[in-house]
Amino acid sequence: MIRGVHHTAISTGNLERALRFYRDLLGFRVAAEFAWPAGTAVADAITGLRDSAARAVMLRAGNALVELFEYTSPPPRPLDPQRPVSDHGITHICLDVKDLDAEYARLQAAGMTFHCPPQDLGGVRTTYGRDPDGNVIELQEVLDDGDPIALPRT
After folding, report:
1. Domain residue spans in the chain?
2. CA 151 – CA 154 distance, rounded (Å)
3. Could you tell me if 68 and 12 are in contact, meaning their C-beta atoms sit under 8 angstroms apart?
4. Terminal Cα-to-Cα distance of the chain (whole angstroms)
5. 3-class SS shares of the chain: helix, strand, coil, % to 5
6. Could you name the CATH architecture of 8-73?
7. Is 106 helix (H, G, I), strand (E, B) or coil?
8. 51, 73 contact by CB (below 8 A)
9. Domain 93-142 falls under CATH 3.40.605.10
10. pLDDT category, 15, cuts 50, 70, 90?
């Protein structure tokens, strides 16, 4: 039985930069930190990699968990920081916010890039931006009378 989503994991080439974004800028707090050296059989079995080595940090904000990995082995390939959200794979992480306009202004002033200013979808306001690795982060505010799973009207 599936109970729900536990966490989202992101591989980054610079764990400290990712922590500055997710922990310091977005306000997630560190829940756990761990690492493994190359040759750790159980890590290789789980990841499907050979001689993997990584550092990782699990972050929490409310009921959301984000796990950041920085692999040193095998050598990772960087993400295209302008990868279109239409490409196959995970398209974005959505963060529930209060006062979307204030968060948008705060994050934009701190250097986060956005696709557009906040948009009103009727009961929900939203915008997409990018983390330092190019992963898409959606900021969504459910208005008092809005449905938290509302879809855009067409």
Report:
1. 8-73, 93-142
2. 9
3. yes
4. 34
5. 20, 35, 45
6. Roll (3.10)
7. helix
8. yes
9. no
10. very high
**Mean pLDDT on 4-33:** 95
Q: CATH topology of 8-73 equal to that of 93-142?
A: no
Angstrom CA distances, 105 to 23, 60, 90, 116, stand at: 18, 23, 26, 12
Phi, psi of 96 (to 5 degrees): -80, 125
pLDDT score recorded for residue 28? 98
3-class secondary structure, 137: strand
What tens digit of pLDDT does each residue of 71-123 get? Answer: 999 999 988 888 898 888 788 999 999 999 999 999 999 999 999 999 998 88
Q: Is the pLDDT of residue 148 over 60?
A: no
Classify 122 as helix, strand or coil: coil
Token couple for 88:
């196959």
What local confidence, expressed as pLDDT, does residue 154 receive?
Answer: 37
Q: Which residues contact 30 (CB under 8 A, 6 or more apart)?
A: 23, 57, 58, 59
Instruction: Kindly state the tokens that stand for 74.
Output: 């095998």
- Residue 108: what pLDDT? 98
